[in-house]
Design brief:
This protein has helices spanning 82-107, 140-152, 196-199, 340-353, 368-374, 389-392, 424-431, and strands at 3-11, 18-19, 26-27, 32-41, 46-55, 110-113, 127-133, 156-166, 173-185, 191-194, 204-208, 214-223, 228-232, 256-261, 269-283, 290-297, 309-311, 317-324, 335-339, 355-360, 364-365, 379-383, 399-400, 407-408, 412-416, 419-420, 439-445, 451-457, 459-464. With 467 residues, it is of the alpha+beta class.
């Protein structure tokens, strides 16, 4: 049963007395408004419209009609006398109540008045107007979005990065907020996942949960290259609600997505959009290394959204909102999210072992621009320690001649296992697909054009965070 709420608004008659320059007669001017209802019903739904209209009551047919524009004397309106005015009010109020009662019958519900209908209906109270106030209904699509937000909000957290600075005048150290970002609950054990650039350079970290409780967090581990960080807070069992994990491998362009975060410090903000591209590549803002298979979306991502979840229409996690392309620094419809399939294993590794393991060749390379100036393609080796995988395989480093002071360029890596390497992005992309202990063929040449191939056993780089 639906409840129809009716608000009664009292409009008092305004009597104005004017004296004509030509006559001593008085004239009263009044406009009345009445409510009318127009009901349409169908087998499934009743659409009822109730509106206000200015109602002009005409004079009885027996009374002489004179136009106010033509007559300077008294107008021939029924309410120029008390009996006529009462009759008009009775008819108007009767029409209003009849419309309200008819509306109630059509809607099959009850009527609730915002104020009593006792003395207010007396003729001396003036004209009564009723308006319908009906609760708005949501479409199935809108309701599903509302439900998704309610389900996911408790899993999204607000992260505050606090740095320690020294006062210039007193030399006292003080903690100041250095930035804010978003994150999400990974499991019920208190692990929180976010971007590394959200926590970079922090002295202390604080996590605000959906119930506004604030918890101090410690860093469990991170991967700068992939811009992933894992935090830990101490909570009671069952207090946290983790997000269900989805799959990013099965995503399609045009699929609807939802981003939840804390842009500009406004907690739990929902933006919607679609997947506008897949397989994008961006560079890590921390190390410059490329991050592949990134999701592109037009859902608004602003400063403070970093580290927040990107969800599919089922409310499952499919990515971490990480970066935007914008000349102004705010959302321009080009947002990028790290795919869940790309960091799921990394997060589990950090939680399980407290370390990050990556395949490496054990060398340091020069910026890409160094070789471009010489007209070469590839990656110039600056340093290949003798105890590292590349040094042991015979790859030469760049050095300076002790006698002449001349710089002698080292080897230039041009390919690995038949795949061409034009710059550092190609090298990192290939390294991400290698496994520790794997033997690969590395094609190198020097700046004089001499080429050769060496075999290198892929080494392991371990970043240990906790015992």
């Amino acid at each position: 049963m639906q409840s129809v709420s009716v608000r009664v608004v009292r409009t008092h008659h305004h009597h104005r007395r004017r004296r004509s320059r030509r006559t001593d007669e008085n004239e009263n001017d009044i406009n009345g408004c009445v409510a009318f209802a127009d009901g349409q019903t169908s087998a499934t739904k009743a659409d009822t419209v109730i509106a206000l209209a200015c109602h002009e009551v005409s004079a009885p047919a027996s009374a002489p009609v004179s136009s106010p524009l033509q007559t300077a004397g008294r107008r021939s309106w029924p309410w120029n006398n008390k009996e006529g005015a009462r009759d008009v009010r009775r008819r108007v109020v009767g029409a209003v109540l009849a419309g309200v009662v008819g509306l109630s019958a059509i809607m099959g519900g009850s009527i609730t008045f915002a104020e009593p209908l006792g003395p207010s209906l007396a003729p001396s109270a003036g004209l009564e107007v009723a308006t319908l106030v009906q609760q708005p209904s949501l479409s199935p699509e809108e309701q599903s979005v509302v439900d998704l937000f309610k389900q996911a909000t408790p899993s999204v957290v607000y992260i505050t990065n606090v740095k320690v600075i020294r006062d210039y005048y007193t030399l006292n150290e003080m903690e100041v907020p250095a930035g804010t970002g978003s994150g999400f609950v990974w499991d019920q054990n208190g692990f929180i996942v976010t971007n590394f650039h959200v926590i970079k350079g922090s002295a202390d970290l604080f996590v605000t949960l959906g119930d506004q409780s604030v918890h101090k967090a410690k860093v469990v581990g991170f991967d700068k290259d992939r811009d992933i960080a894992v935090l830990k807070i101490d909570v009671k069992d069952g207090e946290l609600k983790p997000l269900p994990l989805g799959r990013s491998a099965s995503l399609q362009v045009g699929q609807k997505v939802f981003a939840i975060g804390n842009p500009f410090g406004l907690d739990h903000t929902l933006t919607t959009g679609v997947i506008s591209g897949l397989g994008r590549e961006i560079n890590s803002g921390n190390t410059g290394r490329p991050i592949r298979a990134v999701i592109q979306t037009d859902a608004a991502i602003n400063p403070g959204n970093s580290g927040g979840p990107l969800l599919d229409s089922a409310g499952k996690l499919i990515g971490i909102n990480t970066a935007i392309v914008s000349p102004s620094g705010s959302s321009a419809g080009l947002g990028f999210s790290l795919p869940v399939d790309g960091f799921r294993g990394l997060v589990d590794q950090i939680i399980r072992t407290g370390k990050v393991t990556r395949p490496v060749l054990g060398l340091t390379i020069a910026p890409d621009g160094s070789l471009r100036e010489l007209g070469f393609q590839g990656v110039l080796v600056l340093n290949a320690p003798s105890d590292g995988p590349a040094g042991q395989a015979g790859i030469r480093s760049t050095r300076r001649d002790a006698q002449t002071g001349q710089v002698i360029f080292g080897d230039v890596i041009t390919g690995i296992d038949g795949s061409k390497i034009r710059d550092s992005s190609d090298l990192f992309r290939i390294l991400d697909n290698l496994k520790v202990g794997q033997r690969v063929r590395v094609a190198v040449k020097n700046v004089y054009g001499d080429e050769r191939e060496v075999k290198v056993t892929v080494g392991e780089q371990v970043s240990q965070f906790m015992s």
